[in-house]
Design brief:
Blueprint (H helix, E strand, L loop, with lengths): L1 H10 L1 H4 L4 H7 L9 H20 L5 H20 L32 H40 L5 H17 L9 H9 L5 H23 L3 H15 L2 H8 L7 H24 L1 H20 L4 E6 L7 E2 L2 H8 L5 E10 L4 H12 L10 E12 L1 H14 L5 E5 L6 H8 L17 E3 L2 H15 L22 H9 L3 E4 L4 E3 L7 E7 L2 E4 L6 E5 L4 E2 L1 H6 L6 E4 L3 E7 L1
Parallel strand pairs: 2-11, 3-4, 4-5, 5-6
Antiparallel strand pairs: 1-3, 7-14, 8-13, 9-12, 9-14, 10-11, 10-13
Helix pairs in contact: 1-10, 1-12, 4-5, 4-10, 5-10, 6-7, 6-13, 6-16, 12-13, 15-16
């Protein structure tokens, strides 16, 4: 697709510069000396209109609106300056006459004669190879898009039936010389977002699209070529693969060596296929891409997707609980299963992951039944459409068993969250489409495990973490009689903390200890914001530095509105 985008951009170079195509082909770089500033200005203005309309009104047809507005602007300027025609003398040419008849199967009759057979024989290799590659790409695209829409609609379609229908439609379209089609997720979601729910919506949309073409064709004849070039250049930009851009920006994977290697390998494949597509054409690019992708697929399949499997009984969260809460969690943490994944989550390994997930979620006679499954995606380099759909299906399979799926290393605005949203797994606000259960997303496995522990405490009927604890029951005051408690308490003033407020900073003098009576306070690395501990009400913190006389080695920050008692040295 990146190669196709480059080819589209190169094809619009002549009209964008106000040059005849024949002149550019004949003179090459020397022809660029005669470029027309007015034509380039029209191209830039049209492209800007597409971007502005698409940003301000996402549900509007941005390309169509920009085309009409830019064409009207060029004609208005021509009338204002009294030019005999739009762009006259400025190098802004018109599209000119177009074929206004609807193509019929009889138009292919000349191919049935001797000359037609000779023509077909001469180009048979290119025609057949292109047809096979388009069928391959269209089938893959159709199957993946159908799975994504099914997940969004909570339905199950027969992919074989859909592929057969698309094949028959494309054969019929070929009789009319039309371009092949595939099942497009974007078009389906556009119909759904506008309220379409039945086959009638598809028919109405097709009729309206045909009407736009038939009615708009005479208008296009009077459209300036730079306006069309501006629209096509923005279309080319929209075809650039967003995953490729993420690769270039380094936002596709974590900083582990394996992920960096995968990113570099992917960049090489993308660059080579794009270059071959531009130089030798679409067929050669797709053929090479399929071959290289097969090699990468075999390499990925030979790697284990699950890097590590453990339970919260072996590695609990960094939350420090009170004695009653800790006692309730001691025997139940084994029901929190954690799978740390690595590599790419894509169509080649999603089935295997489902099988690997099945083992830890089975209830064991030797331990508590599973309550949460944490999938740590921190080391996962990319999640494609199949991987996103699989995660949604996994959530649906686990929910009836009473197991909550929690995704670690995934937030609403990071790369994995963006992948889930792009493939329709996070839903679209404001639509009546049945919504899936809310996702449990967490920045890391530690936070996901803590969320699972909190769910266990709630199931046990214990108060939520952060619930105020009477000072007399706090750890520091254990064993004191009433008189001693009042004596110590009178020398420890209370301090109210807001969410995100620092209790102390790394490097501060260790001149006080703190008793947390309400809320939550976390000890964080000041640069990476990594969590070392989170204290619950009743806990004492900051006392070690008071004893050894050193400075604070980390920040202490309130996670929520909290209350501490402070004893200064």
């Amino acid at each position: 697709m990146n190669g196709v985008a480059v080819l589209i951009a190169l094809s619009q170079l002549a009209p964008a510069l106000g040059l005849p195509v024949a002149q550019l082909q004949r003179d090459g770089v020397a022809a660029l000396a005669a470029w027309q500033p007015a034509a380039l200005a029209v191209v830039v203005g049209t492209a800007a209109l597409v971007a502005v309309v698409g940003g301000l009104a996402p549900r509007w047809p941005a390309y169509l609106v920009a085309l009409v507005l830019a064409m009207a602007a060029v004609w208005a300027i021509a009338l204002a300056v009294g030019a005999p025609a739009p762009g006259a003398g400025l190098g802004v040419a018109m599209v000119g006459p177009l074929q206004a008849t609807v193509p019929l199967p009889t138009a292919l009759a000349p191919l049935l004669g001797e000359a037609g057979f000779a023509l077909l024989e001469r180009h048979a290799g290119v025609v057949l190879s292109t047809a096979l590659l388009l069928a391959l790409l269209g089938s893959l695209d159709t199957a993946l898009n159908l799975a994504t829409v099914d997940q969004r609609m909570r339905t199950r379609s027969d992919p074989n039936r859909t592929l057969a229908a698309v094949a028959l439609v494309n054969m019929a379209l070929g009789l009319f010389g039309a371009l092949p089609v595939a099942y497009m997720r974007l078009r389906a979601l556009a119909a759904l977002n506008d309220g379409g729910r039945t086959a009638g919506a598809v028919v109405i949309g097709s009729v309206l699209l045909a009407a736009v073409f038939l009615i708009g064709l005479p208008l296009i004849e009077r459209c300036p070529k730079p306006v069309v070039a501006g629209v096509l250049l923005m279309l080319a930009w929209s075809l650039v693969d967003p995953w490729s851009l993420a690769l270039l920006r380094g936002r596709d994977g974590a900083v582990e060596a394996g992920s960096v290697t995968d990113r570099r390998l992917s960049l090489v494949v993308v660059a080579v296929v794009c270059g071959v597509t531009v130089i030798w054409g679409f067929v050669a690019g797709v053929a090479l891409g399929v071959l290289l992708s097969f090699v990468v697929l075999v390499r990925a399949l030979n790697r284990s997707l699950v890097r590590l499997h453990y339970t919260a009984a072996a590695i609990p969260s960094r939350r420090v609980y009170g004695p009653v809460q800790e006692q309730a969690l001691a025997g139940a943490r084994a029901g929190i299963q954690v799978l740390e994944l690595e590599g790419a989550l894509f169509f080649g390994n999603v089935d295997r992951l489902e099988l690997e997930v099945e083992t830890p979620v089975r209830a064991s006679a030797a331990g508590p039944p599973p309550t949460s499954l944490v999938l740590d995606l921190r080391r996962v380099s990319t999640v494609d459409a199949s991987g996103a759909v699989m995660l949604g299906r996994l959530q649906d399979l686990l929910a009836p068993r009473g197991v909550t799926l929690r995704l670690a290393g995934v937030t609403a605005d990071n790369r994995h969250g963006a992948a889930l949203r792009a493939h329709g797994m996070l839903g679209v606000a404001g639509t009546p489409i049945p919504a899936r259960p809310p996702w449990s997303l967490h920045e890391d496995a530690d936070r996901a495990i803590e969320a699972s522990e909190r769910a266990l405490l709630a199931a046990a009927g214990l108060p939520p973490v952060g619930t105020p604890v009477p000072l007399a029951q706090c750890q520091l005051f254990a064993g004191l009689d009433a008189a001693d408690f009042e004596f110590v308490r009178s020398r420890m003033p209370e301090r109210e903390l807001g969410t995100g407020e620092r209790v102390f900073a790394q490097g501060d003098a260790g001149d006080a200890l703190y008793v947390l009576s309400a809320g939550s306070v976390s000890i964080l690395d000041s640069s990476r914001r990594q969590r070392f501990f989170s204290y619950s009400p009743g806990m004492t913190f900051g006392e070690l530095v008071v004893l050894d006389g050193g400075g604070r080695s980390a920040d202490a920050v309130a996670d929520e509105p909290s209350r501490v008692c402070v004893r200064s040295r």
